[in-house]
Amino acid sequence: MTPAARLSGAIDLLCAIQNAPRRPADATANAFFRERRYIGGGDRRAISTIVWDVLRGWRRLQWNLRDISGDISPRLICAASLLLGGETMENVRRLFSGERYAQNPLTSREDVALKGLEGKELSTQKQPLAVRLEYPDWLDSALRETFGNRLPDEMEAMLGTPTLDLRVNLLKGSREQAARELRRESLPAEMTKLSPWGLRLDGRQPVTATQAFKDGLVEIQDEGSQLVVAAADARGEHRVLDYCAGAGGKTLALAMTMENRGHIVACDVHEKRLDGAVKRLRRAGVHNVERHLLVSGDKWAKRRAGSFDRVLVDAPCSGTGTWRRNPDARLRLTPEDIQELVIKQAQILDRAASLVKPGGRMIYATCSLLACENGQQIDAFLKRRDDFRRLPKEQMSELLPAELRSKAQFSLTPLRDGTDGFFACVLERIVTEAKTQEEDVAVTAPVAEDPST
Questions:
Q1: What is the CA radius of gyration of the chain?
Q2: Other residues' Cβ atoms within 10 Å of the Cβ of residue 438
Q3: Coiled coil where (predicted)?
């Protein structure tokens, strides 16, 4: 495709994203490219780069176009992104030539609006902090509660392009072997600093086309997500429940740490997500996993109360920690979403807790930056359940790097750790004679997840 055709494709994709405001942009993009299989891999990556650059700079682009009367169209904002990224007005006009596969020529209104941006920068100190750092105004106090004086630096890091992290499947081979195989396919990978199983690539790479991926030697998984699994410290003699398993990313990693022994139950309220795990489990060579769909009125959990050594709760959350990867999520998130999620997380914690056996552990994790979804959620849970406590630090998993073993809960950020934003806390169910399984609150109805997380 020519540069003009790629720009035209990016504008069409951005239109599709705007027409589905509550749907994640990556899901819209996947559907967009499935319907246009004639677009090759290199062109898909080029189109996606244009669109994701626009989404990452959305508030700053709108601010720079604030004096323009009328709606700001996908055409206009894509052109503005090019100009503020260093492109010249002459080249932008050339991309809107109206020739085959190119967009129609710029209108006089568009031309005047864009000409004023030539030579300017996307970010300026004149912009309000929330605009310059691309976060919603209404989240300012919550983010300051988390980061304090570090807020500008932390949010600046959130504007960067994320790396592509892989988890090596030790059931199939070593990290060194995986790195060698990727190098043979011109994908040089570095070993991650925190995860003992991670490899890191720069930017968007065609990993799923590699033999290492097809053979199940590597899986795409952020380093932070890998560390959540490390915190679970699941072993081959354990019964493990992945309570919000989704498509099974953490389930696969748990099976690896258990060396394909023991028993894992992967639960979710979405059948399609669980079905999506089947192919991944087969490719990874995992055979110690049972899938279970949680439905209203299900007696499955009641019958298994207090029976699991490890229960992983990867809770539905705001996804604020993944803004580098999913910049559109900043635009979709509302205060009402946070309120609903906090209630839902508390319900899930209470229900999952009844499945942990005395002496067992529950690992609560989110990809959120917000205290109300993280530490405050744990504090509230411990006030409700005096039979749980944060795991003593000396019992934390040795799979974690030393700096994360100093306490039972930890957070990760792009600035400090080079990962997505994550929170994890390991809780232990206290063994007491007074408590019995019959005293547990039975789980009779699942909590529906937010499909946008």
A1: 24
A2: 8
A3: none
Calculate the average pLDDT of the chain: 91
**Average confidence (pLDDT) over 398-427:** 94
pLDDT(386) > 60: yes
Please confirm, yes or no, whether 372 is among the known catalytic residues. no
Please give the pLDDT value at position 126.
95
Read off the tokens for 299: 């007696």
Average pLDDT over residues 398-403: 94
| Annotated binding-site residue numbers | 268, 314
The pLDDT value recorded for residue 397 is 95
Q: Does position 11 have pLDDT exceeding 50, yes or no? A: yes
What CA–CA distance (Å, rounded) separates 307 from 262?
13
Residue 1 is encoded by which pair of tokens? 């495709």
Distance CA 210, CA 335 (A): 41
Question: Is the per-residue pLDDT at 22 higher than 90?
Answer: no
What type of residue is 118?
Answer: E
- Give the tens place of pLDDT for each residue, 114-152: 988 988 999 999 999 999 999 999 999 999 999 999 999
- Please choose, from the candidates 177, 189, 179, 130, the residue with its C-alpha nearest in 3D space to the C-alpha of residue 156: 130
List, as residue ranges, the binding site for S-adenosyl-L-methionine.
Answer: 268, 314
pLDDT, one tens digit per residue, over 153-194 is 999 999 988 999 999 999 999 999 999 999 999 999 999 999
Which residue type does 225 have?
A: S
The pLDDT of residue 416 is: 94
CB-count burial class (<10 Å; 0-12, 13-18, 19+) for 398: exposed
